[in-house]
Amino acid sequence: MSIFKLENVCYSYEDGKEVLNNINYKFDKSKIYAITGRSGTGKTTLLSLMSGLDKPKSGKILYEENDISKFDNDNYRSHNVGIVFQSFNLLPHLSAIENVVLSMDVAGIKLSEKEKQQRAKLLLEEVGINNEKANKRILKLSGGEQQRVAIARAMSYDPEVILADEPTGNLDKHNEEQIIDIFKNLAHKKNKCIIIVTHSKNVSNNVDEIFDLEKYNKISKNK
Which pLDDT belongs to residue 97? Predict the structure, then answer.
């Protein structure tokens, strides 16, 4: 069973400009997907819809066969999907480990403070952040390290799906390769569904399936 389904999804901006038209697609666990296409074809908009930050004008987005428009958005985003941004969106005055623990607090994870600290440390180790760096403030870490922390934060409540918007857009090739490896491990060894909006050919060349939005979007075809 697919974990995510797009069924006839349409979306228009407030000014009436239609950006998505009749989009249909399925996403499975244990796979990495790249959503590709020219700028302006609605890639980030689609990711926003899948994360519950906005709703389609028509059609449905299904998570485990349930329409996400019926979900409590805060609960959905703090339990079912993890979100990774190009700009990291970490709290700069906190340490790496504090950022991850805070995410658990928001999700209502029922662990003791010590257990949360241990879990955060383990998650950070899994993405290549050692104990010394885990206790540093975010601004003391490199861009690549910050993105690793952001991925650990997204995994802090063990979601089934990771939605990533240009997660390597601010990184050099070396760091991009490492982020790709982390996503591969999450998909292929931990059975997660990873969905990445990207312009990077290197990322696209390392995924299991490419979802070229222009091929599915009638608006794009007519341009």
Answer: 97
CA–CA separation, 36 and 200 (whole Å): 9
Question: What's the burial of 188, exposed, middle or buried (CB within 10 Å: 0-12/13-18/19+)?
Answer: middle
Q: What is the pTM of this model?
A: 0.94
- Give alpha helix (H) positions in 22-110: 43-50, 73-77, 96-107
Q: How confident is the model at residue 219 (pLDDT cuts 50, 70, 90)?
A: confident
- pLDDT at res. 14: 84
28 in a structural domain = no
Residue 57 domain flag: no
- Tell me what percent of the chain is helix, strand and coil, each rounded to the nearest 5: 40, 25, 35
Alpha carbons 61 and 16: distance in angstroms, whole number: 21
Looking at the structure of the chain, the number of domains it has is 1
Q: What is the pLDDT of residues 63-73, one digit of tens each?
A: 999 999 999 99
Token pair recorded at residue 39: 């700028």
How far out from the chain centre does Cα 183 lie? Answer: 10
Evaluate whether residue 117 is within a structural domain. Answer: yes
**Within-domain flag for 58:** no
Give the structural domain span for 119.
91-158
